[in-house]
Structures are given as C-alpha cells and as structure tokens.
Amino acid sequence: MKKIWILLIVLVVLVPAAVSASAFGLSLGATALYNDTFGAITAAMEAGNYDGFAEIDNYRFGADLRIKLLIAEIDAVAMFGSEGDSTNISMLTTAGLSFDLFNLLRIGAGVGPRFTINIKPDGEVWVYDSSGNKVDLDNAGEAFLKSPLAYRLTADLKLGKILVGLNYTLDTNYTFEKWKEFENIFNTPFDNGRMGISLLFSFF
C-alpha cells in the first residue's frame, strides 16, 4: 500500500509537469559557483565564520546554457578562473530531466562529463583528468575518457522570462575509461559538491 501511495504522488507531480511543459525552451545567462565544498561551507557556518562569502576571489563566474525539450534538458556550463599564471576553464555538459511545477518553479537534474582546460600565456594548453593529472590537449579523446562524470541539480524560480535560482554540482569518481565500475557513480559523499546561483533569460 505504501508503494502505491508513493507512485500516486509521483504521478500527481510528474504528469501535470509533463503535460504543461512547453515543447521547446532555450535559456541563457550567467552563473556563479562558490569554490568551497558544501561540507566546508557547513563547517564554517557552524563555527560562525561567514567571512569567506564576502570575498570575490572565493567565487568562479561563467555562462549557463539550457536547452529544454518537453521534460528533457541539456545544460552546458563554462566556468572561468585562474590557476597561477594560467587561465582555467571548467566545462560541464549534462543531459537529464527538468520539470516545471505550477508554472512557478523549475527543478532539474542531469549528469555528464566535466573538462577542466588550462591555458598558459605562452599558449600551452592541457586538461586535468579525474585524478588531477595533466593530459595534453592533443589527446582530447583520452582526456574525455579520464574526465569525471558529474551531477548537476538545479532549482529555479520562474519570473516571466527570467529564471533565478540555485544549482549544485558534484563530481563523481566515475570515468568512461573505467566504465564497468558503476559503483563509482554513487560512492562520492554528497557534501563534496559545490553550490552556485544562476540568472538566465528564457528566449522560448
């Protein structure tokens, strides 16, 4: 009986969301991600330390693109930063589901690979694999196989054409290089993720 009630609740939420979903959606905007993990943020707040939130260097900024087809959604995020004298670009593309609830709230979840590209002033370019090792960009295929799979969760308030909300990104220990090790998708502590905010404009 309990399972039946859970199923009914899921249907009550998902069916109206799917029926009311627009056929196509395109949103583009800016996003900011806090550098510390959620676990570190929680520990700092419990200690009464809020100084880090006011320091601009503790944030990374970037672009957020979302393409929605009914309840399916593809997100592409590029975050910009620096590491020493190198420019650092973290790119994450996820595929997943997105639901509009009561035409007021949009909730989404996706998964996909995350690249981290580094560019030095002399033009040297490399990416980091899931272990933090440098991989020559000439071996982009190898870098893709070794890059971590990441989750991205989003919750946005719909204000007309504007979406404003929170996002949460969590790198897993899973890579396509070791595709049989499915347990690595789920064994990463959830509080190792990073929180961010997004502000987007919906064209459709």
Q: Explain this structure to me?
A:
It is a single chain. The chain is of the alpha+beta class and about 200 residues long. It has one domain: Porin, CATH 2.40.160. The chain is built from three helices and ten strands. An eight-stranded antiparallel barrel has the order 1-2-3-4-5-8-9-10. The radius of gyration is 19 Å and the shape is globular. About 25% of the residues are buried.
Question: Topology of this structure?
Answer:
Elements: H1 2-20, E1 24-34, H2 38-46, E2 59-69, E3 72-83, E4 86-101, E5 105-119, E6 125-128, E7 134-136, H3 140-146, E8 149-159, E9 162-171, E10 194-202
Antiparallel strand pairs: 1-2, 1-10, 2-3, 3-4, 4-5, 5-6, 5-8, 6-7, 8-9, 9-10
H-E string: HEHEEEEEEHEEE
Q: Portion of residues in helices?
A: 10-25%
Tell me the β content: over 45%
CATH architectural type: Beta Barrel
**What structural class results from the helix and strand content?**
alpha+beta
Q: What are the segments in which pLDDT stays under 50 over at least 5 consecutive residues?
A: 5-13
Number of domains: 1
Shape verdict: globular
Measured on Cα atoms, how large is the radius of gyration? 19 Å
What is the terminal separation in angstroms? 41 Å
Question: Could you give a short account of the major beta sheet?
Answer: 8 strands, antiparallel, barrel
Would you give the CATH topology? Porin
Using DSSP, what is the number of strands? 10
